[in-house]
Design goal:
Blueprint (H helix, E strand, L loop, with lengths): L1 E4 L3 E7 L7 E7 L17 E8 L17 E2 L5 E10 L2 E8 L6 E6 L4 E7 L1
């Protein structure tokens, strides 16, 4: 995962192995909880953008090491941090902590390599 800062937005890029286009849902929620367990997900920021990525293989299923799931700090003026909620039944969860307000955002995919990109407006 890469978190970047541009003139008008902060950008989060999540890279994938393979060529399938990731399916996703994103929404602002007040109290994010970990899928499966229902445990609260603590995050740095005033608001949480909850992101689910569907049809994700577990690392051991594709011969990969477990990813680093430590929080990634934001470096711009909108994103405070990105925190993993883990993967459960083929669905990965990330909570994007935002500073001060619910910023407009857009999510899109790109190929070569396959990646999901989240742009959060300043």
């Amino acid at each position: 995962m890469i978190v970047g800062n541009y003139d008008d937005y902060d950008q989060i890029t999540i890279n994938f192995v393979g060529t399938n286009t990731p399916e996703w849902t994103a929404e602002y929620i007040d109290n994010p909880t970990q899928q499966g367990s229902g445990r609260p997900i603590k995050y740095d920021g005033d608001h949480a953008l909850n992101l689910y990525i569907k049809n994700v293989a577990m690392p051991f299923e594709v011969g990969r090491d477990d990813p680093n799931l430590s929080p990634v700090p934001g470096i711009g003026s909108a994103v405070s941090e990105v925190r993993s909620g883990g993967t459960f039944e083929g669905q990965a969860q990330f909570v994007i902590g935002l500073k001060d307000s619910k910023h407009p955002y857009k999510v899109h995919t790109e190929q070569n390599p396959t990646r999901l990109i989240i742009d959060v407006q300043h």
